[in-house]
Amino acid sequence: MPLLVADNLHRTFVVGDARVQAVSGVSLSLDAADFVALVGPSGCGKSTLLHLCGAMDKPTAGTVRLEGVALEDLGDDGLTRIRRDRVGFVFQFFNLLPTLTVLENVALPVLLAGGRSAAAEPAARALLDRVGLGSREHHYPRQLSGGEMQRAAVARALVHGPALLIADEPTGNLDSENGRLVLDLLTGLNRELGVTLLLATHDRDIASAAGRVVRMRDGRIE
Amino acid sequence: MHLFRWFILRRLAQEPLRSMTTTLGVALGIAVVVAIQLTNASSLRGFEAALNAVSGRASLEIVGTGVGVDETRLTGLGWLRDYGDVTPVIEGEIALREKARPQETLRVLGIDILRDRSFRDYPLTESPDLPSDRLLSRLLDPSSAILAEKFAAPRGLQVGSTFDAIAADRTTTLTVRGLLKDEGPARVLDGHFVLMDIAAAQFLLDRLGRIDRVEIRLEDPARIESAEQEIRARLPAGLAVQRPAQRGRQVEQMLSAFHLNLTALSYIALVVGLFLVYNTVSVAVLSRRGEIGVLRALGVSRSRVRTLFLAEAATFAVAGCSAGVVLGRFLANGAVALTATTVSTLYIRTAAAPPALDWSVIVLAFAVGVPLALIAAAIPAQEAARVPPAAAIRGSDQVDTRTRIPRRYVAVAIALLALGGWLATRPAVNGLPIFGYASAFAIIFGASFLVPAVLFAVVRTLDAPVRRFLHVEHWLAVTNISSAVFRLSISVAALAVSLSMMVAIAVMVGSFRETVVYWTGQTLQADLFVSPAAAGRPSAEATLSPEVVRTVMTSQDVLAVDRFRVTDVPYGDTRIRVGAGDFDVILTHGSLLFKTPETPTDAKTAMRSAIGEDAVVASEAFTLKHAVNVGDQVLVPTPAGPVSFRLAAVYFDYSNDRGVLMMDRSTFERHFGALAPSGLTVYLKDRTMPEEARARILSAIGDSHSVFINTNQSLRAEVLRIFDSTFAITYALELVAIVVAILGISGTLVTLVLEREAEFTILRLMGTGRRQIRRMVVGEAVIIGGVSQAIGLVVGLALSMVLIYVINVQSFGWTIQFHVPWTFLAQSSVLIVAATALAGLYPARRANQLTRFDR
User: Fold this and answer.
1) Cβ of A99 and B14 within 8 Å?
2) Residue A115: predicted pLDDT
3) From the CB of residue A3, how many other CB atoms can be counted at a distance below 10 Å?
4) Cβ A99–B302 below 8 Å, yes or no?
5) B575, β-bridge pairs
6) Of B356, B451, B506, B728, which one has the greatest count of Cβ atoms within 10 A?
């Protein structure tokens, strides 16, 4: 059974007096351990589609099933649970919490899911070692470089063992070297852990690392 | 717990200025509430403690109607011994005469020592268990007195020492025969206590033939209800039975309006502090929307986000309440000092020291502060819970950029203002202006909801003229405010609320003062006022000696004398004042400011009709509190029982709020007996030289008696001095509220500055100087201060009307003529705007420190 099935998704935003059709009739299917890249210019609806697939937003029309669960039928608590337990996010601007150390940032999803520090911290340390930040666990985000922050964000996105990892322009705010490092990390973890990776980018080079590329334009898949 | 520690507490620690400002705001608000509660309790508890200490083990007491119990009636009360032990008691006040110290008042207790031991204990320092007969032998001499050691020791008084005491207008030398330990009755008025034999006390206090009450200690205390009923049924007219606590409840009733006013004022300071909590949590939510979005993306539920920010508010509340309780105890010292004059002058003599902080006040502080802080933070916490994860990360839902004020704000404001108007028309509840205060709060909250619309309208109006006539940084200040109207509205509302209370109280006090000045001008027509030196105010207990009265009346300087007498009588669950004066003298030489009949001629005719009749003239406060009018019959307790008096006229009286019934002296003597006067109002033949006449009269009286003689001018000054001291505490409370609000302004500006780091960097890149940056931020502060003061003025005037025409009338029964102190309001407006400008200096400095060209 596919891990994620999105069928005829529509998402409309009302901004002032205007209605913006961010996603229009998009259908998508992901299997476990897939690495799919969403490619398109800025404003084509990539991020909106990611949010719909990642239970961060609900479609105006259409269905999204993650591991068989219809996300559009869930209330806010249900979507929250899905995000907490089954999805990991990596953002363009890292979005680490500034008042938490690197270790605390990475351990947070496990704690949110009800885990104890005794279980969360070892898991966080293991991932930090995997992403090469084992020696920085007690530093705060402001003490890290952009590449380091993004690697910490990747570790945070995976610590709770999600089925789906969503990355929205994960290299968009990094230089080419750090961008390559982060991309290699994501593709490596996709292979090692078998986590499904859905990544949005406007960079064709980044997209070429994916197993499948889905092109979007003006809210539709080309 | 992890989230709370990491997400909330750490951020609070990283922003110490804002955290401390908010905590201080709550602390000040709680401190004021605690201080007022302790102050209110102080005056009442001081009296109740004295009452309990003196009452001892008495179960019931037999009292007369304000002038005590005639001793000749005691022979007919022998049957009271069937119920238990019975003893007569007399109480009064004397003043200690000391050269180096101000005059101090001592409470005298005169007892029948042989019968009294089952009621009270008198542990002497040197002989704690002295038998009754030995104690009696110490007090046989009429000049013998037993003092509290706590009072005597600091003054160097020992057993065998003598001291001069003034009782009414007579100076007497008393000898110390013993010192009491600090227990029981010796604790009255913080040790200001004198124990004497009852006969000696009667002589000292000029109460020969009278006692204050007969106390009964029931053999079977469990039968108190039935005993009380039986005794009540058997007592002759003019005597009443009550429990000792009844006197305390009467005093509590007298003080209730005064206490409620202070309590309501104290809650204003707390409300302002809670505005700060709302503001701080609101700003935290707004500035951390991105982080909240991340938490939501990671799977933190809405309720958990809401709980986090409520916990932030609770943190401020707990810290603020803890500090506030300690600070409040400290402030209580000042508050008691500020209110002591008023309470002692208008109501009861009270002990100076406030009571110690006990658990009930501490619990009250937390029980009030924490829930209110949670209520204050509820709306921003709910806003935080509603932050959608996706939109917050995108940053596309910044609520600050709203360019229209939601209609619901204006609708809520109008509804609250209308509600406030309606509540102001409601009557008092048990004599208390509950609806009046509700009206004031509704107006305050209604005005708060109008603040965004007003602020928005002001900046839109200022935009063009500022751009045209002032510098660019001033125009930037206007545009910055217009883009942050909602975030600034709470701070503006908090300051406006404080300022509106300041304006309301200034108008109310100013109006009241003008009314009192006019009233004293119309009413205090006599040239001299003679009173016993031992009394600080006209008192039922201190009277003038016949020698003094004769000396004054036969003086060559004197044209006419009104020998007035006042006495307090129980009236329902409170006490009123019954006064007697020479109506003929008053009508010929003096003046009363009449309310009804309205014309002076008709009023004087009505008053003259009361001479020799069973008729009274009532103060306005009496008629409002007891719902009577001219022509009605009023039942007045007298020694012979209740007597019906016709209400002939109503006059304005601002000397007390309890209510006064005044009758002609002949009527008073007919019902209460020929009692010595409490004071004399004197009209001179030559009105141009009152000081000289005063000196001659004092010389004629000589050293044998001690009296105060005030001239008309000095008495008016004294009236205004007491008036000004009465309202000193209200000014102090308002100052606290204003300080808290200005702290909030400064805190908000700092937050807005911190969030505009990029903007300041760009401005500096473009060549904006540091002085311009400072002028811009200070300009924002000035606009905020100006708008707050303007709103405060308008709302304050509305509130002053509620204070004057509703709260004051229902609390005290006084009509006040509306008068606006324009000079004061203009001066305070300038000061407030200047203060907020100063509050903008620190945020301006932070703004200049922020610019970093390396980012």
Assistant:
1) yes
2) 82
3) 20
4) no
5) B570
6) B451
Mean pLDDT for the stretch of residues A131-151:
93
User: Mind giving me the DSSP string for B1-54?
Assistant: -HHIIIIIIHHHHH-HHHHHHHHHHHHHHHHHHHHHHHHHHHHHHHHHHHHHHH
Nearest C-alpha of chain A: how many angstroms from B300? 7
**Tokens, residue A19:** 């209605």
Contact between B507 and B793 under an 8 Å Cβ cutoff? The reply is no
Give the CA-trace dihedral at A137, A139, A141, A142, to 10 degrees: -160
Place of tokens 């006022």: B529
- Which residues on adjacent β-strands are paired with residue B565? B580
Nearest-angstrom CA–CA distance, B547 and B701: 8
Considering only CB atoms, B11 lies closest to which of A83, A84, A99, namely A99
Task: Report the range of poorest mean pLDDT among A158-162, B62-66, B110-114, B805-809.
Answer: B62-66
Q: State whether A80 and B300 contact (CB < 8 Å).
A: yes
Q: Provide the pairing of β-strand A164-168 with A196-201.
A: parallel
Peptide bond between residue B597 and the one before it cis (omega within 30 degrees of 0): yes
Within 8 A of A15 by CB-CB distance, chain B residues are 396
Nearest residue in B to A111, CA atom: B2
> Rg of the Cα trace of chain B?
32
Q: What does the DSSP assignment read for B294-318? A: HHHHHT--HHHHHHHHHHHHHHHHH
Give CA–CA dist B214/B63, Å, rounded.
7
Give the CA angle between residues B361, B379, B277 to the nearest 5°: 45
For residue A79, count other CB atoms closer than 10 A to its CB: 22
User: For residue range B380-398, what is the model confidence (pLDDT) as tens digits?
Assistant: 899 899 988 875 565 544 4
Model pTM score:
0.74
Percent of chain B surpassing pLDDT 70: 90
Extended strands (E) in chain A: 4-15, 18-30, 35-39, 61-66, 69-70, 87-90, 164-168, 196-201, 212-217, 220-221
Here the tokens at position B178 are: 């013993």
Identity (one letter) of the amino acid at B431? G
Query: Among B835, B806, B664, which Cα is nearest to B738's?
Result: B835
Instruction: Provide the chain B residues 293-352 that lie in CB contact (below 8 A) with chain A.
Output: 293-302
Residue A200 bridge partners (DSSP): A38, A168
Contact flag B299-A57 (C-beta cutoff 8 Å) = no
Give how far the C-alpha of residue B814 lies from the chain's centroid of Cα atoms, to the nearest Å.
16
**Scanning the structure block, which residue is given the tokens 């205090």?**
B524
Give the lowest-confidence range in A15-19, B154-158, B446-450. A15-19
CA B168, distance to chain mean position in Å, is: 29
